[in-house]
Backbone:
């Protein structure tokens, strides 16, 4: 006769999980059931069922560590907290929603700030990396600017022994054939040391032969896009095709890197196509110069040596000085404008606003938790009183509420993570950081930061309720007489802070919105409507002439002009040194953009002197030089072979950069020596899109194989305000969230006071008090706090907004209507919340609350 027994390991598991006082009874029942199933069903089924029932016994399991009284007490706190959350799930849900919103906003802002603050931190040599910058004294002002010259890369490493490596870095455009189409590609020139200085991971090949003008390296992503390996590739520069050998493929640098090239070309090739005079010019700042110093090198000594080398042939007392900017500070240092291959610097306005919005929303949500906890005070008072009667100390009651705060915050954090999973892609795209993913949140620094936020918010949210709820008198609580409303100044102060923060953010949002709308609609001083721009990278004058001839025959084309980029230089006038911007233009540039001529005339294409010896200047330059009668003045301006021109006209100031910058002095001139980079075409507004078809056809005939890429000038100017547009949206979103959280806080506070005065309200109703009277009574009570919040938020908001606006040369007037609008919004929220809360109470039957009296 066979004997049916469960497997030994299952029996041992049962002994392990089941308490001793229940083991004999439960084990006997399970064995009997096992034998019956084996006889009547199957052995396999009996084993599966036995294991399942053993696992179900785990609910009686008491780990040995629970013998530790503190752990057992903690377990009790958590169980009690979960039960109370479920019992009051309506209020708890609202509470957790508030915490979730605050934590989500804070985490998103923290995530964004972390990415910005950790730019270039991945480079192991970051403490030894620098960028060459300059300082010069002009008109008593110390000017700082970035940029290096070609000759620096030849002279500095050879003469300064403390330099461990140096690489020039310059952007360029080339044409590469992709999928049978010619595409512009952003490329970079560099020196071989760049691969030692920065953390390049060479996946295939090597950079050892990079010094040859025929060898290049490309990124792994570009190699996949082009479907190429270590082979030859053709790149079109200007008027010629150049065959290069791909000698290495490197892993793409991280997204938060100031340098992130796709193609790296050697400066040995750049030297073959650049003007020879520019290669020896110390002041031809058209690239970046990156330096890596040796360990323990004296930075000040290196700067002095660089200055001595760069100014050896300069005039005595020129005031020029070479300086070194730490490479890890480039992204956050707005003193300099990045260019020539370096990504733009961070916008500090966005960083500050993101930090403020995240911090204030988190603080408001923590205050909301405190108010909601106090709103549930009556429900908990007798429970806590009983705990004290049976021996609980005030400290244990305090710990109970701190644990509940941590539990609620943890639940909110989990919900927040789920919420981030859905909205993070939209947030990343909105903040122009589409590369950020949900997985990026789980970096060690971010995990530590998130846990720290979780701990801090638990303490902030739970500290005040824990102190209040653990400190009342037992007798009053059991008799139902313990209340928190009358003497609780801190709870009123909490509500005042909430509305103060909301007022602060609303005023900031209104000011940012109006300022940026003002800048977007600002009169730039020229007409940008119906004007398209075409970038020119082939500087063949024959191609330009053929294209312009074709443009003149296209119906719907009113005017067209061409120009170079805006460059900078300085000159000496009457023993004073001045700095100015300058641009090469065609004679049609001024009329095409509708720029107003205040004095003199425009360029005449039939006058040879206008081409070689005449300039048009703007108002700012005339005022800077103090010229009472500028026409006919010989300007000691020189750039290359163009020297000492005569002023033939003065134009009204126009913003050739964004209106968020100061107006700058400008010199416009014609010179066949310098290249044209843009073509401007003014279209007839009624012509529709038909002219663009003919313009593209003319372009392809004149500039093949260069792809046709057209940009509307008005769209370009709007793109210049993209950062401001993001600031406006962040401020608006933050303000709306703050108002929402403030409404939740008001709801909790009103609920607290109403719940403690249900009998009083019932008696007033029985005595004949009208709903309007009850509404008015509570409105007056809470209105005092709202006014306090208005004052608390309004004054610092106006101070900081005024400081912020002072950075804009073109700005709005800060008026008091911002404060009135903010007050109106908060008043509307206040009245709506108050009516919703009181209406439920006023409609209730007073007998329900008075039947026990």
Residues:
């Amino acid at each position: 006769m066979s004997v049916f027994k469960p497997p030994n390991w299952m029996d041992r598991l049962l002994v392990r999980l089941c308490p001793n006082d229940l083991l004999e009874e439960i084990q006997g029942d399970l064995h009997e059931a096992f034998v019956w199933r084996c006889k009547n069903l199957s052995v396999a089924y009996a084993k599966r069922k036995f294991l399942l029932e053993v696992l179900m016994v785990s609910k009686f399991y008491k780990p040995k560590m629970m013998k530790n009284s503190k752990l057992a007490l903690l377990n009790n706190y958590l169980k009690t907290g979960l039960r109370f959350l479920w019992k009051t799930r309506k209020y708890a849900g609202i509470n957790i929603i508030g915490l979730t919103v605050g934590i989500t906003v804070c985490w998103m802002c923290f995530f964004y700030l972390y990415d910005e603050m950790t730019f270039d931190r991945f480079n192991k040599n970051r403490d030894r990396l620098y960028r060459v910058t300059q300082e010069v004294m002009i008109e008593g002002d110390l000017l700082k600017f970035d940029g290096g010259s070609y000759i620096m890369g030849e002279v500095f490493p050879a003469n300064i022994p403390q330099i461990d490596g140096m690489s020039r870095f310059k952007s360029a455009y080339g044409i590469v054939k992709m999928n049978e189409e010619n595409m512009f590609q952003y490329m970079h020139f560099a020196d071989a040391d760049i691969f030692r200085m920065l953390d390049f991971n060479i996946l295939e090949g090597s950079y050892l032969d990079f010094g040859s003008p025929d060898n290049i390296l490309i990124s792994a992503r570009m190699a996949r896009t082009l479907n190429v390996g270590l082979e030859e590739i053709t790149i079109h520069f200007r008027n010629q095709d150049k065959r290069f050998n791909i000698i290495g493929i490197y892993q793409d640098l991280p997204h938060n890197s100031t340098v992130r090239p796709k193609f790296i070309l050697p400066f040995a090739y750049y030297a073959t196509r650049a003007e020879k005079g520019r290669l020896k010019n110390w002041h031809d700042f058209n690239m970046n110069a990156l330096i890596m110093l040796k360990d323990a090198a004296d930075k000040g000594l290196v700067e002095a040596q660089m200055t001595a080398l760069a100014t050896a042939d300069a005039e005595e007392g020129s005031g020029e000085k070479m300086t070194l900017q730490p490479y890890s500070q480039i992204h956050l240092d707005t003193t300099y404008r990045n260019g020539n291959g370096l990504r733009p610097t961070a916008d500090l306005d966005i960083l500050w606003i993101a930090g403020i919005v995240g911090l204030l929303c988190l603080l408001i949500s923590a205050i909301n938790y405190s108010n909601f906890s106090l709103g549930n005070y009556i429900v908990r008072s007798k429970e806590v009183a009983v705990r004290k009667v049976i021996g609980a100390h005030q400290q244990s009651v305090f710990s109970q509420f701190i644990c509940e705060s941590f539990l609620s915050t943890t639940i909110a954090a989990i919900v927040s993570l789920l919420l981030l999973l859905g909205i993070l892609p939209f947030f990343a795209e909105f903040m122009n950081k589409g590369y950020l993913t949900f997985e990026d949140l789980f970096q060690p620094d971010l995990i530590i930061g998130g846990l720290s936020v979780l701990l801090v918010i638990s303490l902030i949210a739970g500290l005040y309720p824990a102190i209040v709820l653990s400190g009342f008198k037992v007798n009053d609580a059991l008799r139902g007489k313990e209340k928190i409303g009358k003497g609780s100044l801190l709870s009123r102060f909490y509500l005042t802070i909430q509305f103060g923060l909301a007022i602060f953010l609303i005023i900031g949002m209104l000011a940012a919105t109006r300022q940026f709308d003002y800048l977007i609609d600002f009169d730039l001083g020229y007409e940008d409507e119906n004007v398209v721009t075409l970038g020119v990278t082939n500087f063949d004058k024959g191609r330009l002439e053929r294209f312009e001839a074709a443009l003149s025959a296209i119906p719907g084309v009113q005017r067209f002009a061409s120009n170079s980029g805006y460059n900078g230089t300085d000159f000496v006038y009457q023993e004073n040194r001045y700095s100015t911007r300058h641009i090469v233009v065609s004679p049609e540039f001024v009329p095409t953009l509708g720029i107003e001529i205040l004095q003199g005339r425009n360029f005449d294409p039939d006058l040879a002197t206008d081409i070689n010896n005449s300039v048009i200047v703007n108002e700012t330059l005339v005022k800077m030089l103090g010229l009472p009668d500028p026409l006919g003045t010989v300007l000691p301006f020189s750039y290359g072979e163009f020297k000492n021109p005569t002023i033939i006209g003065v134009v009204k100031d126009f913003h050739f950069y964004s209106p968020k910058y100061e107006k700058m002095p400008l010199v416009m001139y014609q010179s066949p020596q310098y290249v044209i980079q843009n073509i401007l075409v003014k279209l007839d507004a009624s012509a529709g899109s038909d002219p663009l078809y003919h313009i593209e056809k003319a372009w392809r005939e004149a500039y093949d194989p260069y792809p046709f890429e057209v940009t509307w000038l008005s769209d370009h100017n709007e793109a210049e305000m993209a950062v401001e547009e993001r600031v406006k949206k962040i401020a608006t979103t933050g303000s709306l969230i703050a108002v929402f959280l403030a409404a939740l806080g008001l709801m909790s506070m009103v609920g607290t006071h109403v719940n403690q005065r249900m009998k009083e309200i019932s008696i007033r109703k029985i005595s004949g008090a009208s709903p309007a009277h009850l509404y008015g009574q509570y409105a007056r009570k809470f209105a005092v706090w709202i006014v306090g919040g208005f004052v608390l938020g309004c004054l610092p908001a106006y101070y900081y907004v005024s400081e912020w606006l002072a950075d804009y040369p073109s700005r709005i007037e800060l008026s008091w209507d911002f404060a009135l609008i903010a007050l109106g919004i908060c008043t509307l929220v206040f009245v709506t919340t108050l009516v919703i809360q009181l209406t439920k109470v006023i409609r209730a039957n007073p007998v329900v609350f008075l039947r026990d009296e």
Notes: The first strand starts at residue 129 and ends at 138.
